[in-house]
Amino acid sequence: xxxxxxxxxxxxxxxxxxxxxxxxxxxxxxxxxxxxxxxxxxxxxxxxxxxxxxxxxxxxxxxxxxxxxxxxxxxxxxxxxxxxxxxxxxxxxxxxxxxxxxxxxxxxxxxxxxxxxxxxxxxxxxxxxxxxxxxxxxxxxxxxxxxxxxxxxxxxxxxxxxxxxxxxxxxxxxxxxxxxxxxxxxxxxxxxxxxxxxxxxxxxxxxxxxxxx
Length: 213
Fold this sequence. Notes:
Elements lengths: L3 E7 L5 H9 L2 E8 L2 E8 H9 L8 E5 L4 E11 L6 E8 L6 E10 L3 H4 L3 E4 L3 E6 L7 E5 L8 E3 L10 E2 L6 E6 L2 H22 L8
Parallel strand pairs: 1-4, 2-6, 7-10
Antiparallel strand pairs: 1-3, 2-3, 4-5, 5-6, 7-9, 8-13, 9-12, 11-13
């Protein structure tokens, strides 16, 4: 995704009434958390709704332009919504520190049609996200795996992913992300072919001719 920028206005007053006044004016109250500390602010409701509707993910980093301060990188930690309307009620952002590793969930998508699927195999996508520890500079929110050349019986494992060198993928072992498995129809066809091949060999053998005395 292209870099997302969000303007943040500072706020000092708290409480239910103040938050309701903010929402009535078209703004959403937020907190920005960093190293155990929190800074209060607000963002334009239309602007944040547009960004959220664009499909940001847990590992999507945003650039926050804080009023009277420097720009910072952060990702969405928690979104609270009104149950009846699904309107954004409150957002917590987590500020990241350059060079300091963060942990986030990264989505895995696939592209292309596996050639094994065209040959009758069953394509399966088992892992749709992985937990990654990385520096903010190397963090990406989506990995796309091209499965076009994936044949029947082949798979893509976590170790096959092309990832930045600073990444520490938090998984046990080396699980399969996606594969093309043999279907019952393919297995039955293989058995039939094997039996036919064996039968042809047996017919070719015949009986040995008797020896002349």
